Amino acid sequence: MGQAHSAGPVEGPAAPRYSSLRRHAWISLPLSDTTTEAANGRFLEDKVALVTGASRGIGRAVALELASRGARVACVASLVENAVDTARLCSERTEGARPYGVDVADTALVDQLVREVRKEMGGLDVLVNNAGITRDQLILRMTEDDFDRVIAVNLKGTWNFIKAAARTLMKSSGRIVNIASVVGITGNAGQANYAASKAGVLGLTRSVAKELAGRNVCVNAVAPGFIDTDMTAAIDDTTRAEIVRSIPLERIGAPQEIATATAFLAGPAGAYITGQTLVVDGGLSL
Ligand SMILES: NC(=O)c1ccc[n+]([C@@H]2O[C@H](COP(=O)([O-])OP(=O)(O)OC[C@H]3O[C@@H](n4cnc5c(N)ncnc54)[C@H](OP(=O)(O)O)[C@@H]3O)[C@@H](O)[C@H]2O)c1
3-state secondary structure string, 154-177? Predict the structure, then answer.
């Protein structure tokens, strides 16, 4: 790595810039019109969304869901080649998706990437901060590097994108959805670094929500419980069965269930919700 990468649009012509009227559609339309947009399912038509960690797991499901709702999606992974397939699938739903690559922990490169997205995609309306890592270890064995890297990717990465995109989102009355974790609320043995990073994301969410509310930018968090992705794939069957027993709904969640909650907050239904944490965990944190 060393610079932010864009691989250009996956297919379709360059999308036109939309008018300032359209940009404010979800706050300025009467309820009946927003309801019509919601009813046809494409309530993010003419919006540009940026999703980090879009190569797989939850981020991929979120990118595809937003594209299904009509958004042109900037799909960001750590390497541009990792995001190409998601961008291709997004473009099958709404033309004009593009893959990008950046280390979300790198402030200067994230700033450069957000500028590129704005220029190449004609604006930015929805930012989903989803990229995340774990480096689980009991506190006595956790190294400084384990702590610093998890904070750098999960918390500072989220701050980096908000900082780089805030001005644009203020102009578009945009949305920010940060993917946190129930562990940021409950804590978890072996995840002091990860829980601290996700608790930080929740505080960041509430603070930025207060700062940007005056510009009609809604900022919320989704806190998933145990979701079936690469991140949880290494957990052995015995532990997995124990976790399932501790979930009131008695099953592991699917990435799509986080994607649906994220699209809800990013769409017209989320217009009067800000600073909140939507817990999607099958009751795990109860
Ligand atoms: N799975 C769960 O049970 C669960 C529960 C609660 C919260 N979450 C949160 O949900 C989010 C997604 O989790 P997941 O389970 O879908 O994880 P995953 O399958 O491991 O995917 C992680 C994603 O983050 C990207 N990423 C990691 N480090 C990055 C970096 N430094 N710069 C740019 N991109 C980076 C990866 O890109 P590459 O492919 O390029 O590496 C990948 O797209 C995370 O924030 C996670 O903490 C997950």
Answer: HHHHHHHHHHHHHHHHHHCCCEEE
Q: Whose CA is nearest to atom 39 of ligand 1?
A: 55
| Helix locations, the chain, DSSP H | 20-23, 25-28, 31-39, 57-68, 80-93, 107-121, 144-150, 157-171, 183-186, 192-212, 230-233, 237-246, 255-266
Please name the amino acid found at residue 87.
A
Please state the atom number of ligand 1 nearest to the C-alpha of residue 129.
45
State pTM to two decimals.
0.90
Ligand 1 binding residues, C-beta < 6 A: 52-59, 77-79, 82, 103-105, 130-133, 153, 179, 181, 224, 226-227, 229-232
Catalytic sites, residue numbers: 194
How does pLDDT run across 32-78, given as a tens digit for each residue? 444 555 557 999 999 999 999 999 999 999 999 999 999 999 999 99
